[in-house]
Sequence to fold (363 residues):
Amino acid sequence: MNILAVISLFLLISACQPQAKPVTDDHNEEVPSRHKLLNEENDKFEAALGWLDSETILYSVKQDENQPPQLKVFNRKTGKQEIFYQPEAAIVNVSISPSRNYVLVHTSSSPHKANIDILKQDGTKEYSVAIPSDELDFSWNPYEDGILFLTSFSEDWSFTSYVLDTKKKAIAPLDFPQPFAQWAGKEELLYVDWKKEDPDLRAPLISLNIKNQKKETVMLDVVHFQKIKNGLMAIQVESEKPDQAEYKFYNGKKEQVSSFSVPHVNTFSDSMIPFYSFDDKKNTFYTFTPESAFTGDPYQGTFKLIEYNWETGKKKEVLKEMENAPLSCSSEGSWCLYGHQLESVINMQEKKVYPLLKARNDE
Fold:
């Protein structure tokens, strides 16, 4: 699942839920004194947004009615909290770059315009630009820090793609066949080549060099993919095995390294892609797997949280009977934010879930 879409989702959810609640009371443990908790009022906390480093969490809090939410940071090791950035308009989306050197803040002061602020890790503004947009999607280039592929959608879902260069403080239109793409190199983009007239949820994965226009089919029958700096994860569902989703992992040379299969959940509108997170340093993939295959809507079963080293093929179970909810793991993978507002934290070594926020009676 694209983490940009996830962040938009829980910012929307937070408007309807005045208090941050645990994903499930069955898993939240009593917090040992050595674990620092975020000391924010529940009705002010909106959502955690990810990790700026192995200990520092970026999150948003509500301000007065006339002010947009404020971005703050919290250090889980020291317990220190401080203001990171105060946007001038309502926040639509927030994304931390793969290097964690930059933070993109998408705000909107009008229905048909997107304001994009690129911040440094200390919260100072590096570059700002405004473009016509009703909806916005983007992906960071892990091979060239501060570069993004960005797509602006109009009200009729027509789109314009761009390449944004933070260091050069420039944005340029890009003629590109699909609105959603991820970087496979400094000048290479990957995309799933869905056809408008074809209702099939599976399509070829295509590589396109934006400099020389060289095009290559990487694989067929892809329902989802995620590019990371040193590899590629693709999910395939074969017509002969519609109840199984196969996760395949490739190295930087596009050679398959490992794979595993899980039960496939197919809703009436699309394939369910359980939430996941990567630890690039350890070549580790974390995701939820459904207990059984299912076709229909909605899926009522529970999930297992698994840890998979895609380089060695070693897989282990972390937690059972979990809800499929957004997941964001720290850079060394020992802690993962979890929940619809990322309001819980999972200690991956202890295999326990703790609340992120301090309860009022803890004070």
